[in-house]
């Protein structure tokens, strides 16, 4: 320990004696370690941290699987049979997201909530903060309405008072008794304001085996039961249901996914690509600092020779150098933690919707330990080469050199480091270039509508204005008339079903004149939009043939439908669909196709379709069957409108108009279509942002590294340069000599990096759009950028060398 403390004290003194070297090394390491720390905290929060439930690996998400959809919602009657018939789950609970209006003396507020089965919280292992969860007898049609509050609503509305249990609250005009308060987190990690029993919902559509209504389920596996055993068990149940209910359940099975995997989704591959990229940044930083330390150790060769000559063994000298490198790494790691905290918050703020579990990303003790270990390893890594270079047996030769320590061996090692970091920088730059090309291709992929100056929001009216289908239609017609009178509104439409790039609804159908498919799974499927006549004008979706919906297409007229180009091409490949009829089995209607419009990229820019459902059909909102009208009103009537100025400026006006019409109405979820379009490529923007940052760091560090090596090279050859110039060499000859050395190292690095990139960029294939992983334009352009940066970095010391006075150089020692 005494020897260690001596090494530490001496190392600190030596680093203080070289403040420029120390500052450059610490900043370089801070950039590399900070970037790695930031990304590790993201991976830790998203992928590594277990879910906040007891034995989370036993909690499974369940969905219904059909030939059309790998992951669809579960009809409630099917869920009840799954729950009753399985032998693999200790508990199973249904859930679906829903929104509600809370009305009190202060007005109305829109709540985000969930309908859940009894035993939901016990399944997760979550205890209510106060009160209890639902009992089985409360999860039935006709039971007294009860609710569990989320703690966010509890604190906001009830000042976190435990006396809220037993109180009545008004939800959608109906009185509910509060029985408990639950923690904020729902199983899908989104805040929930309120929970109500799913079994109390008496709507007939909800109890139709053909309709899922957005329901899914979670289950907790019994001890000792594997996921494969559970899948086999559920396959047996779904086969029995298919035999019992062939029209609804033929071809239906259960899709079981670990809850954590379900939450994380497809984010894992691109996070690991980014982890590899940020690892390259650290390697480049280490190569840079190793080069600096090699140059510094060369200058200290006389010092090391004297220490060995007076009795120090070589191992002690090596240990001293490693001690100094670890001190640098720890200092860089400390600064890197601060950079990581700032950088991580900046990136997450810039791309908030790109990552699941984003609220769990933070620097904790695990991240700090990772940074400590990374710093120590980095210190050993970049300190090893200069430390090993101190093994020089020729002490007399070293002492005679006077401390300049010029050595071809040192040059070769430094050149290898430059080639190494140039190759890594090229790989990162190519990765960033491919993502930039992907983003350009995505933004060039037209969404099928004009998003500029389009605003969307939802409006929910009180039950007194939405109790019957005719009342729903008349109330919203009047509301639209009032909206249209607002200054700045160019056009406006109501919308139900799907909203482009945000939510979806699908309908099964078959063509008139063809036999009805025996089962739902054999039917054709399409996205559906229920709209009012100005929808296409508002969204600027072009009419290709036929006509659009008009005011005359109401609940009393002949049923009509408009389809998109993809629908017409797929289901009427060699004939004219205008005038043909469709059978919409769920709606029990046979509308006539009256028009064909342009296709909308519903699933986002660059998307190829969700479960291959791309066809789109449009129904007049007024012709939606009466039994569905109150459901649409309860879920929140969507509104889309085009304005003549920035749409955000009108939000307060829409709120006022709505509440003037209905004092208990709620207007919420204001969002521009431009923002929705941007969010559809949030994952690609997140990848591009980080890869660009890492590539920029790599380019900077590589340029600094080659600048350092060439500067050292010029310093070591000052006398040689002077002799050359004294013998008649021109400045351009000196410039060519030094630039040539830098260019040779860069070209070797570029060649090695290009070969590595050809293999590694294939890992990015799923992240790319409109560009191949071996895109020659990207490879060529990035090579020119890197080579230009390297030559610029070489030019500075080369130009300085041309200014050497030959007489001064000849006296140089």
How would you describe the overall organization of this protein?
- The protein is an alpha+beta fold and 813 residues long.
- 49% of the residues lie in helices and 17% in strands.
- The protein has 25 helices and 21 strands.
- Strands 11, 12, 13, 14, 15, 16, 17, 18, 19, 20 and 21 form an eleven-stranded mixed beta sheet that branches. Strands 2-3-8-5-7-6 form a six-stranded mixed β-barrel.
- Helix 14 packs across helix 23 and helix 23 packs antiparallel against helix 24.
- The radius of gyration is 34 Å and the shape is elongated.
- 43% of the residues are buried.
- About 1% of the residues have low confidence.
Q: What secondary-structure arrangement, pairings included, does this model have?
A:
Blueprint: H1 2-17, H2 19-48, E1 59-65, H3 76-85, E2 89-104, E3 107-116, H4 120-124, E4 130-131, E5 146-150, H5 151-158, E6 168-171, E7 174-182, E8 194-197, E9 216-221, H6 227-244, H7 246-249, E10 253-258, H8 259-264, H9 267-299, H10 301-309, H11 314-350, H12 365-388, H13 395-400, H14 408-444, E11 454-460, H15 469-484, E12 489-497, E13 506-511, E14 524-531, H16 535-539, E15 543-546, E16 560-564, H17 565-571, E17 582-583, E18 592-597, E19 616-620, H18 629-635, E20 637-643, H19 651-661, E21 666-672, H20 673-679, H21 682-716, H22 718-726, H23 731-760, H24 776-802, H25 806-810
Parallel strand pairs: 3-8, 5-7, 14-19, 16-18
Antiparallel strand pairs: 1-9, 1-10, 2-3, 2-6, 2-9, 4-7, 5-8, 6-7, 11-20, 11-21, 12-14, 12-20, 13-14, 13-17, 15-18, 16-19
């Amino acid at each position: 320990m005494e020897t260690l403390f001596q090494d530490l004290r001496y190392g600190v003194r030596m680093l203080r004696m070289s403040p420029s070297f120390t500052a450059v090394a610490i900043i370089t390491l801070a950039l590399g370690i900070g970037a790695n720390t930031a990304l590790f905290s993201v991976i830790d929060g998203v992928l590594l941290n277990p879910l906040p439930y007891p034995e989370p690996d036993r909690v499974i998400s369940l969905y219904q699987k059909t030939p059309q959809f790998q992951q669809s919602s579960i009809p409630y009657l099917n869920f009840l049979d799954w729950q009753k018939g399985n032998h693999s789950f200790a508990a199973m609970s249904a859930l679906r997201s829903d929104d509600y209006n809370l009305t009190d003396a202060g007005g109305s507020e829109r709540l985000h909530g969930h309908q859940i089965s009894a035993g939901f919280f016990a399944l997760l292992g979550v205890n209510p903060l106060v009160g209890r969860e639902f009992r089985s007898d409360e999860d039935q049609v006709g039971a007294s309405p009860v609710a569990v509050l989320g703690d966010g609503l509890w604190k906001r509305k009830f000042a976190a008072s435990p006396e809220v249990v037993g109180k009545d609250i008004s939800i959608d005009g109906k009185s509910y008794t509060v029985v408990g308060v639950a923690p904020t987190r729902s199983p899908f990690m989104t805040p929930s304001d309120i929970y109500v029993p799913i079994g109390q919902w008496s709507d007939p559509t909800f109890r139709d085996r053909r309709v899922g209504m957005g329901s899914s389920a979670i289950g907790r596996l019994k001890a000792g039961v594997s996921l494969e055993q559970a899948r086999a068990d559920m396959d047996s149940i779904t086969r029995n249901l298919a035999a019992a209910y062939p029209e609804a359940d033929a071809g239906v099975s259960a899709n079981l996914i670990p809850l954590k995997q379900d939450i994380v989704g497809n984010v894992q591959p691109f996070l690991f690509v980014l982890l590899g990229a940020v690892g390259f940044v650290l390697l480049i930083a280490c190569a840079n600092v190793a080069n600096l330390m090699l140059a510094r150790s060369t200058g200290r060769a006389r010092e090391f020779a004297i220490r060995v000559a007076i009795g120090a063994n070589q191992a002690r000298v090596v240990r001293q150098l490693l001690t100094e490198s670890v001190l640098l790494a720890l200092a860089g790691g400390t600064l890197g933690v601060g950079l990581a905290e700032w950088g991580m918050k900046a990136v997450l703020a810039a791309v908030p919707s790109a990552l699941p579990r984003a609220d769990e990303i933070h620097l904790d003790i695990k991240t700090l330990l990772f940074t400590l270990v990374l710093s120590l390893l980095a210190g050993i890594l970049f300190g090893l080469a200069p430390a090993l270079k101190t093994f020089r047996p020729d002490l007399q030769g070293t002492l005679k050199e006077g401390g300049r320590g010029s050595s071809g061996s040192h040059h070769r090692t430094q050149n290898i480091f430059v080639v190494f970091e140039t190759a890594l920088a090229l790989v990162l730059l190519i990765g960033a270039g491919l993502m930039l090309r992907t983003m350009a291709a995505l933004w060039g992929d037209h969404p099928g509508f004009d998003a500029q100056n389009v605003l969307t929001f939802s409006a929910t009216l009180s039950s007194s204005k939405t109790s019957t289908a005719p009342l729903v239609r008349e109330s919203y017609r009047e509301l639209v008339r009032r909206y249209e009178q607002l200054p700045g509104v160019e056009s406006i439409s109501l919308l139900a079903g799907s909203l482009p790039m945000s939510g979806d609804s699908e309908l099964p159908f078959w063509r008139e004149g063809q036999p009805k498919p025996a089962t739902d799974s054999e039917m054709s499927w399409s996205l559906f939009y229920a709209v009012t006549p100005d929808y296409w004008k508002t969204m600027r979706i072009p009419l290709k043939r036929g006509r659009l919906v008009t005011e005359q297409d109401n609940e009393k007229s002949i049923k009509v439908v408009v389809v998109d180009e993809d629908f017409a091409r797929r289901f009427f490949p060699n004939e004219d669909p205008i005038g043909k009829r469709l059978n919409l089995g769920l709606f029990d209607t046979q509308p006539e196709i009256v028009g064909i419009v342009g296709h909308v990229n519903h699933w986002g820019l660059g998307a190829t379709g969700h479960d291959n459902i791309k066809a789109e059909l449009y129904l007049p909102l007024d012709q939606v069957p009466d039994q569905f009208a109150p459901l649409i009103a309860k879920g929140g009537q969507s509104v889309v409108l085009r304005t003549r100025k920035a749409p955000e400026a009108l939000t307060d006006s829409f709120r006022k108009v709505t509440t003037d019409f209905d004092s208990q109405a709620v207007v919420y979820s204001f969002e521009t279509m431009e923002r929705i379009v941007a969010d559809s490529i949030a994952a690609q923007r997140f990848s591009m942002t980080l890869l660009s940052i890492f590539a920029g760091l790599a380019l900077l560090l590589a340029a600094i590294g080659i600048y350092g090596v060439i500067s050292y090279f010029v310093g070591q050859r000052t006398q040689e340069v002077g002799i050359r110039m004294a013998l008649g060499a021109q400045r351009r000859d000196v410039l060519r000599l030094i630039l040539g050395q830098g260019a040779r190292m860069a070209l070797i690095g570029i060649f090695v990096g290009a070969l590595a990139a050809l293999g590694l960029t294939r890992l990015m294939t799923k992240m790319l759009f409109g560009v191949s992983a071996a895109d020659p334009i990207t490879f060529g352009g990035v090579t020119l950028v890197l080579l230009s940066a390297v030559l610029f970095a070489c030019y500075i010391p080369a130009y300085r060398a041309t200014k050497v006075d030959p007489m001064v150089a000849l006296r140089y020692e």
